[in-house]
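Final report, section 2: Outcomes. Of the targets proposed, Glycoside Hydrolase Family 3 is the one most frequently requested by collaborating groups, and we therefore present its record in full.
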Amino acid sequence: MARSRLVTVSPLLFAMLFVVVVLSSSFADCLVSLSLRAIGQMVIMGWDGTEVTPQIRHLIEEHHLGSILLTAKNLKSAHQTAKLVQELQTIAHQAGHLQPLLIALDQENGGVNSLYDEDYICQFPSAMGQAAAGNADLAYKVAKATATEVSAVGVNLILGPVLDVLTNARYQPLGVRAVGDDPQEVSQYGIAAMNGYKDAGVATCGKHFPSYGNLDFLGSSLDVPIITQTLEELSLSALVPFRNAIATGKLDAMFVGGCGITNPSMNVNHACLSDQVVDDLLRNELGFTGVAISECLEMEALRSEIGVKTGTVMAVEAGCDLVLLCRAYDVQLEAVAGLKLGVENELLTKERIYTSLRRVLKMKNACTSWAKALNPPGISLLSKIHPSHLNLSINAYDDSITVIRDNEKLLPLNESMHQEEELLLLTPLVKPLPASSLTKNILEAKNKSDSAPSEHDKWIHRDRGVIMSGEGVFRELGRSLARARRGKLLHTSYTANGKKSLVVVAVSSPYDFAMDKSIGTYICTFDFTEMAMAALVRALCGSSRARGTLPGTLRKSRKAVKSRQHWLVEPYDRDRDSNGLNDLLSALARAAAPNHRFLTTTTAHSFEIFNPNIEESHFVVRNSSTQALYGFCATYHTQGTGIIGAIFVDPTKRNVAIGRSLHRRALRALIQKRGTKKIQLGICFPGVFLGIPTDDGGLKTWFSNSGWDLQFPRRLANMVIADLSSWSAPEGLLQSIQRANMSFDLIHGLENAETVLAHVSGNANPEVFELYRLALQETKSCGVVRAKCQRGGLVGTVVICSPGSQVAGYVPALQGGEEVLVGGIIAPVVAPGNGDLLVIQGLALMGLRQNKAHKSGRSVLSWVGEEGMEGLGAMGWEVLEGWEEFTNSVENVSFLEG
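The predicted structure is given below as tokens.
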């Protein structure tokens, strides 16, 4: 006769869960049964739709789902939200959940609000806008008001505050969602917001650990952005706000990002799946004891690389307590199945599961109860608090509006303009922010006004049947501005021309034109919600004074944060400096990352092109006693474009302003040349640096801090087929080229090159034109492949060079040494059109055939644009080096200061 066995858990877990009685079963069976019910408390899930679906109900009832993430796709109004949340909690209660659901929401204000209701839910400035107001107490009040409102509809967890430091502010996606680039200021405002949430009875979740403030983006949707800073660098900046928030003891949860980390001490593909990040860094080093929430595991990069089942187990093994699955029901079931398999395979231990369970239930105990969850106060409370919150919102926006410059004294407009003068308003076409009912009505009305259309309305509807999403906010801005100044106003797009007094308004990041002193009057709103636009009108027209300040280090004197040391910069002298430059290049090669091997084949000769149509001027910082070079900068000038082709500093002499001294001298020299219209960073002839290496965030930060506008890069790459002997053309490529009726031929010599040079001149930079001229002159070892369409017109060209050619000497990636002969395929130039990808593939194919004929063991394709990388990847090409080329207008000379 089988004996019964009673299996119990600790008193704490007994109170939280249940006692399991099992007859004739093993202890492992008991553990699995107990753990499966706990699994539901370890996931947080969402769905699309404004009503409870059978799928989300099934997850709550059958899989014991304990946490829900609501997004804007779920929420129509405050009343609907309260009703929806109450229904979700009722389902959980009737299903036997011992504690209510966690209901989480992104409600950061500014441009990131999941819940908007003009009648009951107030809009407040973004985190950066609040910091611009210069009052941490205001941030506390805004956070408390926000949390009070969302708590009234049943939300008990806000995914905030944002604790990221914008270490590289000018091109990071967070923008105004973050306070700024000063770690202590981010800490101050982050903790103020956290206290506001807590005092309103809502749980808090810091984000995005370890930092989304300085990410390198590799381009493809399958590539995860990465952090390249060392742990020491992170500790001094990015981790400071997280450490300070944890030290208060009031932070309930931490959102762990999905970014990668690559530095000498850590190589992590996804932070939230790494015990180095969660258990070691977050818990052991920073001392966090709350709930760790993973980034959404539905992200494409993780799904394609690892799979959700394995990824979910890895997240829990790493130390995450709640695993986020945003909306796909099949993926959510896959995650639950993965956790069950993890338990059955004993990858997830009883202790690991119960540790997470204790943390989650402790947070629930602190922020909710069944009495509170089943009876949210809803509209009755919101209607009472709305007037005071609206007044707080107006004051907060007025305090946040920031005038960075007003050199021409244009503000307020009612003092600088006569009423009869016409005001021109230029606005962008943008994606929408959370819209008020007013904007929604504008979108739905489709200009069904009885009155005659204004010039403003004519522009909004020109050539379009409906208003584009996002235009409603700026349309109302135009109307408000016209009313406020009681004068003429014309609203148009950015295409307007003419010299007028200009007021530039940044309606998001202040970094856009902060350093461009050609803009005399510059004002910032930090978001483009209707409340922000209303505050802007008040500031422009003088009914309120713009009192805001710039965030973080922008507020400080730029000269104060730059090194005051200046180095003597001299022109490069070949006889005197070439040996020193070779020594400098060798030192750089030894200190460079493995993927910068091109430095090992770069020599002093690589920078001197001796081309009569390209003026070259190089500069050095040197020790005149030892003749050692501490720094080198290569510059070129052709057809109105000044180019920085390289800038080097001895690794042992960095951070003492050598690079800044070279940079300043080079720019002055280029701008002073007659006819200079633009300045370019990166060059393909010589092709040592095509731009800033994409994997060097520090160098990008340096140029950004030196005044370059790095918002609009041209992404380029050198690509390689390492083993040409084993390569073969992909199946179907030749047939596709034949179906397109495309033909190719190879030419040598300038006498046959008139159409080639005309094509390159019309479709590429002037230095590329000179590269082609050199290649065509080198008839024995170089040629140009032409691609022609069915009608015989030229649609593409590429330079082909055999190993050891003169052209190859200017492209270090083509230097294979004695190991292997490297064939070059350089500077594909394709006329834009529907078939340009096939043209690039065809040119590469013809180039590979020529390289094989020259007995090359490897092929390198240099200066490939982003538009061709994916198609070439399908042929077997791999990225050898990635670059970003930048071009700035010569009028932006603020980077010559300091």
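Residues 410 and 417 are 8 Å apart (CA to CA).
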